Amino acid sequence: MSDESLFREVDEEVRQEQLKKLWDRYGNYVIALAAGVIIAVAALKGWQYWELKQSEAAAATYANALKLIGENKRGQADDALKTISYAGFAQIAKLRRAANLATGGKSDEAIALYDEVAADAGADPAARDLARIRAGYLLADKLAPAELIKRLGALDNDQSDWRGAAREVFALAAYRTGDYAMADRYANAILADGDVPLSLRQRAKLLVELLTPLLGTGAQK
Prior knowledge:
The structure is a single chain. This protein is mostly helical. It is built from nine helices and no strands. The protein has helices spanning about 5-70, 75-80, 85-105, 105-120, 125-140, 145-150, 165-175, 180-190, 200-210. Helix 1 runs parallel beside helix 3, helix 3 (about 85-105) runs antiparallel to helix 4 and helix 7 packs antiparallel against helix 8. The protein is elongated and about 105 Å long. The termini are far apart.
């Protein structure tokens, strides 16, 4: 045997002895770590599967509720929507519940649900603003314009996607209360805004036409 072969053999034996000592000392930790990784991966896969099943169940319940609404079975639809608690669908279900209640003539209950979504700091900001607007429309024939401005005033700015709807709520409330000048001001603000939906501008145009002969009748200025 050459010196080089002898050195290699001795070196290999030394390495094996060192590995054996390391394994004797840390082997249990290595096994525990490997088991922990396996458990963590299994838990992650289990959670992902559970999330998928929850999402699928919520989607199926929501679709069934829409079907019931289409069949005018509003009570059954409301019961179905109440059961949806999965985060990805909960706020959508609550908004749909409120719309369903409003269509069924239960505006106070609908407003309460919209206000609940609007006050939920964990909800999507777009959902919260939508809830504010929808509640505002329901309240346009109940509250004074000043009260509605308190509710929706933050949306009445040129950067808000909801500015047209907010201004329409204010105009409708002002028209109802006889403040025709205020109603005209907000309706014309909608007409002058080329970025709001066409349907909104068309309704504003009709309102302006209704207001024109009224503005000289001694209404509030």
